């Protein structure tokens, strides 16, 4: 269920009659993908079928490349993504030609890798919901993301609950409880501290329970 203030804001964005790129930002485990799915279901229920979710996670560097760089233990940090490639994709979506389908990668947690060409974005797509950690970061290539989006909503959640959900997610995808807790504290929480500093750049704050 989407609160009225957010469904009304989304309706106002769509009422402009042009393609809308809506960003959903927040720290790991905050519920960004859950919100994105809820928004997609909401617009589908309103009769808008030309909508798609575009996760930033599709631009994770491959595990082999992370190992080569010595960054495997830091997967999820700002420099473990192809941020320039993500920016280029958003730019193409802003300039999309009348007959061009644009393909984007999708990250699969089951294999911890991105698969190229998994998301097809048709020319008639009116709403693109892109979600990820670093949409509001103002350095490196990430600084070019915010100007390409119509709005960015930041997902806020109780940190203890967020950590609990993160540990459960890591366990679901193969880590032991001890490994999951260690990864959350040594990796996810380091990233979360940085991401939380970008909160003030958001257009709206979406509070999750």
Annotated CATH homologous superfamily: P-loop containing nucleotide triphosphate hydrolases
Secondary-structure content class: alpha/beta
What is the rounded Rg? Answer: 17 Å
> What low-confidence regions span 5 or more consecutive residues with pLDDT below 50?
none
Name of the top-level CATH class: Alpha Beta
Count of all domains:
1
CATH topology: Rossmann fold
Strand order of the largest sheet: 2-5-1-6-7
Largest sheet, strands/sense/barrel: 5 strands, parallel
The chain-level mean pLDDT equals 94
Task: Give an account of the 3D structure.
With 209 residues, the protein is of the alpha/beta class. It has one domain: Rossmann fold, CATH 3.40.50.300. 37% of the residues lie in helices and 21% in strands. It contains six helices and seven strands; from the N terminus they run H-E-H-E-H-H-E-E-E-E-H-H-E. The strands form two sheets. It has a five-stranded parallel beta sheet, covered by helices on one side. A two-stranded antiparallel sheet has the order 3-4. Helix 5 packs across helix 6. The model has no long low-confidence stretch (mean pLDDT 94).
């Amino acid at each position: 269920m989407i609160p009225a203030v957010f469904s009304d804001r989304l309706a106002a964005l769509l009422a402009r009659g042009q393609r809308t790129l809506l960003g959903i930002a927040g720290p790991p485990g905050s519920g960004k993908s859950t919100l994105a799915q809820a928004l997609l279901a909401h617009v589908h229920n309103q009769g808008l079928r030309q909508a798609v979710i575009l996760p930033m996670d599709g631009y994770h560097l491959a595990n082999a490349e992370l190992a080569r760089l010595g960054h495997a233990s830091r997967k999820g940090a700002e420099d473990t993504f192809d941020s320039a490639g993500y920016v280029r994709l958003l730019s193409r979506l802003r300039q999309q030609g009348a007959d061009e389908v644009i393909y984007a990668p999708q990250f699969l947690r089951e294999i911890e890798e991105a698969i190229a060409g998994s998301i097809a974005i048709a020319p008639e797509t009116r709403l693109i919901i892109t979600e990820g950690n670093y949409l509001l970061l103002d350095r490196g290539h990430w600084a070019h993301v915010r100007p390409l989006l119509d709005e960015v909503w930041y997902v806020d959640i109780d940190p203890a609950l967020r950590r609990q959900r993160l540990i459960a997610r890591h366990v679901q995808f193969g880590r032991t409880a001890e490994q999951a807790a260690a990864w959350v504290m040594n990796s996810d929480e380091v990233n979360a501290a940085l991401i939380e500093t970008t909160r003030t750049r958001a257009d709206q704050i979406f509070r999750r329970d």
